[in-house]
Amino acid sequence: MKKILSLLLLIGSFTYAQNNFPKNYFSNPLDIKMILSGSFGELRSNHFHSGLDIKTQQREGMPVYAPADGYVSRIKVSHYGYGKALYILHPNGYTTVYGHLRSYAGEIEKHVKETQYAKESFEIELFPDKNFLAVKKGDLIAYTGNTGGSGGPHLHYEIRDASQRPINPLHFGIDIPDSKAPLLMGVFAYTVDEDGHVNQSQNRTKLRLIKQKDGTYKTEGIKAYGKIGFGVTTYDQFDGASNKNGSYRIQTNFNGSEKFEVTFDKFSFSETRYLNRYIDYEYFETNKSRIQKLFREKNNPLSVITYEDDNGYVTVKDSLHSIYTISINDLKGNTTFVTIPIEGAKMDILDPKNNKVTDDYINADHATSITKGKFSIYIPANSLYEDTYLDIRADGDTLIFHEDIVPIHTNITLSADISSYREEDKDKLYLGRLNTKGEPYYTSTSRNGDKLVAKTRTFGKYIIASDTIPPEIEPVNFSEDKWISNENFLKIKIKDDLSGISSYRATINGKFILTEYDYKSDVLVYNFNDNVNLETENNLKLIVIDNVGNSATFETKFFRKHP
Ligand SMILES: [Zn+2]
User: Fold this and answer.
1) Mean pLDDT to the nearest integer, 89-109
2) How many angstroms does the Cα of residue 48 sit away from the middle of ligand 1?
3) 70 vs 96: CA distance, rounded Å
4) d(CA 336, CA 250)
């Protein structure tokens, strides 16, 4: 057995370098040592991570340099997601992408600002013509930041191929020291057949791990029967960083022959949401830990599955002993190895599959319409990955719409009848999903006569909520009617209690000023360097509107020395 194992490990480490990506084409976009807080393919909320997260020493404003010649092919400024993002197309066909930037540099920044002022909008998306904004290797192109859905200062760095598929940037000659094998947190077994079991259970079974002297793992021996599959919780760490990153490759074997392999080399954005099918979604929602299922179920088209035999399942026969192994690898070839001894035994099932039977059985292949009290629900075909019993109940203005333990792939439409509300109240209504604090979190809602219509990809408790309170506006670094000559920025806090901020517009002396909204800190910032129509005495006006249309206006005078 030992011999076979070491042979397998050897074969495993040979397959890594097999790719034709250019190794010395792209230089480090930052002039600091590359330390990562996030890896390619890492499991995130509703997606696989599409690039590297490069640490920036807990600071913003680090210069970003073009890693190769090219031109700016796309610029996107958004409140959410990548925040301020820059795309550079290189002559070799690859595009490099930079996310969560604080600002752009030079001509790029100038072009962005001009467009924002021309469109009177912070959020913009541009596709500049070839060579309009050409860059040379080493040119300063941007400054790192923390904009959009970023939880701390870092640079999101991505390399895409000509089909806009993100590729693992570590294939391009970036060397990140990694001397430790991936960490194994848990191994789980799943059953498929009606008379199948693992240790007489048909539900997810966690297997006890036993660390061996040679550093590999063994699980407790299991008794099983029928078609079964396995899953793992694992993460990898680079040297000198404590972040829990994704493992590069997982391979499984059954009695010496390969069963399944998942590899994080590349994927396409159209498939990234299938992560919710790949992981055990219920386990994640309940335990906040992602089990990777080492088998392909129906409605899982993921291309990161790079090998499969019988979809990765194994069939255990009565009275036969078998060995199932899992090897988890990082890109440096460090391997964590697990052996699962299986004894075939047809036995009584003590813990049958717990399918909560309800009135609403959804056939995933077909569209389904359901009405409950004031609510009607439309579930398109293939919105769910598999046929599922849903628990749906209406109680007055509340809709219990199952639980967030089942993933939704494409939008489900919820509508609520609001004809019983007073006419003047109807405008302030929206559909909210109750969060853990019991607050109705705004779900993008439109009004169609006496119906509220919302689209959602999350199960949970929904209510017809009402927001009658306009947003709050409060200056942060200045007082009304005062001198503010020494400040470089105007900072104003804007907040809305229920439905949330939808739009805002600020002017000085009647002229639009560009304000940047950071939803994480609720702060709007104006940069005095924009130099808009400033006098000694200035009138600032800010209008903020929430998602149901409640509007707040803030007006003040301020004084400022100007040249
Ligand atoms: Zn990232």
Assistant:
1) 98
2) 10
3) 10
4) 9
Q: Are 98 and 29 in contact (CB under 8 A)?
A: yes
Show Cβ contacts of residue 105 under 8 Å, excluding neighbours closer than 6 positions.
63, 64, 140, 141, 142, 143
- For the chain, state the CA radius of gyration: 27
CA of 81 to the centre of ligand 1 (A): 10
Centre of ligand 1 from the C-alpha of residue 156, in Å = 4
The pLDDT tens digits of the residues spanning 222-236 come to: 999 999 999 999 999
Which single residue is written with the structure tokens 């993100």? Answer: 166
φ/ψ (deg, to 5) at 286: -90, -35
Q: Report whether pLDDT(261) > 60.
A: yes
pLDDT tens digits along 336-359: 999 999 999 999 999 999 888 999
Residue 308 Cα distances to 192, 302, 313, angstroms: 17, 12, 9
Task: Collapse the DSSP code of 52 into the 3-class scheme (helix H, G, I; strand E, B; otherwise coil) and give the result.
Answer: strand
Residue type, 419: S
Distance 86 CA to ligand 1 centre (A): 13
Instruction: Please state, as a whole number, how many other Cβ atoms lie within 10 Å of the Cβ of residue 387.
Output: 12
Give this prediction's pTM: 0.93
Helix (H) or strand (E) holding 402: none
Rounded Cα gap, residues 443 and 440, in angstroms: 9
CA of 99 to the centre of ligand 1 (A): 7
pLDDT band at 481 (very low <50, low <70, confident <90, very high): confident
Residue 135 in tokens? 């860059």
- 302 CA to centre of ligand 1 in angstroms: 20
In the reported structure, the alpha carbon of residue 44 is separated from the centroid of ligand 1 by a whole-number distance in angstroms of 10
User: Backbone phi, then psi, for 318, in 5-degree steps?
Assistant: -60, 140
pLDDT class for 17, splitting at 50, 70, 90? very low
Rounded mean pLDDT of 124-135?
96
* Full DSSP string of 343-376: EE-----SB-------SEEE-TTS-EEEEETTEE
413: nearest Cα among 399, 423, 395: 399
How many angstroms does the Cα of residue 38 sit away from the middle of ligand 1?
Answer: 6
The bridge status of strand 70-77 relative to strand 124-126 is antiparallel
Nearest Cα to Cα of residue 319 among 287, 283, 346: 346
Q: Residue 481 Cα, ligand 1 centroid: separation in angstroms? A: 42
Phi, psi dihedrals of residue 188, rounded to the nearest 5°: -130, 150
Per the prediction, the chain carries an average pLDDT of: 94
Mean pLDDT of 66-72: 98
Within 10 angstroms of residue 507's Cβ, the number of other Cβ atoms is 17
